[in-house]
Amino acid sequence: MVGKAEVKTTCINFGMTEAVSPVVGVMLMLVVTIVIAAVVSGFSTGIMSDKKADLPGKITFHGIAGGGTDPVLDDGFVGLLFDVEGGTVNLENMKFYISSSDYGGGEAYLTYNDPLWGKYYVGGEGSNNGQLKRMINNPGKGVLASDPVDFYSSVMKKYTNLNPDGSGMSKDTILTAGDKFIIFMCYHQLAQTALYTPNNPTDPNKPDTLGFGMYRRYGNGATAWQSGAVYANGDGHYILSDTGGTVYCEGYLKETDFI
Question: What distances in angstroms separate CA 1 from CA 4, 7, 109, 219, one per listed residue?
């Protein structure tokens, strides 16, 4: 008699002990999708925020600070005033170019790293008190509440007011909308006067003059020197840009720009 054959089935377990139900699988997929969406959203927001912070500032020319009313008192700052109307401005990246054809011609540029030339304020290197009293200059030693050499370590300064003691000046270099800054000029020669005898009119047609100077020292010990002056009669041309070449504003200096 032929007996029944006994059939045995062998199951081999490859490490999968149990399966995940369809419901749990769908939920896991939803969770993963939500996490990925959140990460992508945060990343995108971060990029947008960075771009917003790096937007170039909008700068407008406000006018010319002509200094005080008396050359002897040195009771006012001489310089060009600018307003930041939007974005972010880093003064350390600024470059100021100025040129003229009327006053003998020529051109020069100033950067944040250039100090104001000490020759043109009391207490500065090479200054001559007798000469300084014959033109309107920036306040110096005896007027400023701080050391003038340190105060004028840069020709560009943020300010909130133009008090001659310097209390309205700031060393902050990152400016945003509503902030103001000055680019110092060396002196202001009043209209119709000779440079060294301001109380004696010499030419009724001579316009107000702004003098500027730069004595630049490089890290390798080399120096560069530039000086000049421009008439505030529409001839003096200025360009304010950053060191990368982006121009913020430009124009021509006029008598009506004095504030």
Answer: 10, 18, 117, 112
Q: Determine the distance from the C-alpha atom of residue 190 to the mean position of all C-alpha atoms in its chain, rounded to a whole number.
A: 29
pLDDT of residue 101: 83
Count structural domains, the chain: 2
Provide the 10 A C-beta neighbour count for residue 164. Answer: 18
Assess if residue 11 is contained within a domain. no
Q: What is the pLDDT of residue 108?
A: 86
Residue 73: both structure tokens together: 């008192």
Please say whether the beta carbons of 138 and 151 come within 8 A.
Answer: no
Encode pLDDT of 190-205 as tens digits: 887 765 555 555 667 7
pTM as predicted = 0.76
Per-residue model confidence as pLDDT tens digits over 78-106: 999 999 999 999 999 999 999 988 766 67
Spatial distance between the Cα atoms of 254 and 236, rounded to a whole number of angstroms: 8
C-alpha span between 6 and 240 (Å, rounded): 98
Is 113 found in the same domain as 237? yes
Considering the domain architecture, whether residues 241 and 149 belong to the same structural domain is answered as: yes
Distance CA 39, CA 133 (A): 66
3-state secondary structure of 157: strand
Which residue range forms the structural domain that includes residue 216?
A: 58-257
Q: 149 and 118 in contact (C-beta within 8 Å)?
A: yes
Rounded (10°) CA dihedral 112, 115, 120, 123: 140
Residues 120 and 211: their CA atoms lie apart, in Å, by: 10
| pLDDT value of residue 17 | 47
Identify whether the C-beta of residue 91 lies closer than 8 Å to the C-beta of residue 242: no
As a whole number of angstroms, the distance between CA 250 and CA 255 comes to: 16
Residue 224 corresponds to which amino acid?
A
